[in-house]
Every structure is written in C-alpha cells, then in structure tokens.
Amino acid sequence: AARGPVTITTLHGAMATLGGAFLRREDGRISGVSPLSGQDGTIMTVDGRNLLGYGERLTGMSVDGVPVYNISVEPNRSRIVCRLGASNVTNTSRRNVAVSITSNFGATVQRTFSFVYTAAEPILQVQPSQGAEGSLLVVTGKNLYGVGGTS
Fold first, then answer.
1. Mean per-residue pLDDT, 29-34
2. CB burial of residue 151 (10 Å; 0-12, 13-18, 19+)
3. Contact at 8 Å (CB) between 43 and 63?
4. Which of 107, 114, 117, 111 has its CA nearest to residue 60?
5. Average pLDDT over residues 34-38
6. Is the CB of residue 98 less than 8 Å from the CB of residue 110?
7. Is 32 within 8 Å of 145 (Cβ atoms)?
8. First-to-last CA distance in the chain?
9. Spatial contact of 72 and 23, defined as CB atoms under 8 Å apart
10. Which residue has the higher pLDDT, 144 or 35?
C-alpha cells in the first residue's frame, strides 16, 4: 500500500492538491459463497479477504439485488454469515447473480456466482395432528430440507 496525493478540480479548472493524503489499500475480495442455491431464509456464508473494504461496519449487503438479513460479520472481516431475502425470481434454473457488500466508507466488494433460487415449498401434511410435548411427528412435503438434504 502506498500513499498518494488527493487532487480536487473545480468547475472552472482551479486545482488543489495535498500530497500523501490518501493510503490506497488492496481491494476486498469474495473468494466463495455457500450454498450455491437457496430460498428466503437460507443461511449463506460468504468467505473472502477484507470483505468490508477497510470500512468499520457493513451498511448493505445483497444477493442478486435482494437485501439479506440477520447479518453477522466476523471480527477479522474474512467471513459474513447472513440469511437470503425473498426473491421474486420464478425461474429456478442456475444463473449468475452478484453478491454485493457495502461498508460505511462506501467501499463495495462484489463478485458474481452461479446460483439457483429454489422455490419455497409448503408443508403438505403433519401427522398426528395433535399430541403432547415430545410427540413424534411425520411431516410431508416437497423440498423440506431446502438445499443439500433428502426428503
């Protein structure tokens, strides 16, 4: 990282410069996201380096332009865990989506990944329909494990 000058130019062409006023640091980088498919509420982990772009706190994060929620940033800023927001995407095929992270300094760290939004599926049946605490239930539906499970 090297210090460099900051120069401003007015609309009329006048210039002012302060040498060594700004330290240019290495850009943040997203190295991976997991899982690569999900729906509203899916827990996503984003790994990388300097994910806040040397900012002090996260001010915004989205996947495919959809804000995420329940965001947790590790102190070393190399991992962020969040929950995916609800997308209006109805086509559940794999496509490229951008993961975008913005800090209070205005720095944005972004990377595009191949991702599948899965459709939220309802629970179809619960049996038995009543019981005491500790009762075993059979829950029937489609894609109940969400990503990576069996049903």
1. 95
2. exposed
3. no
4. 107
5. 90
6. yes
7. no
8. 51
9. no
10. 35
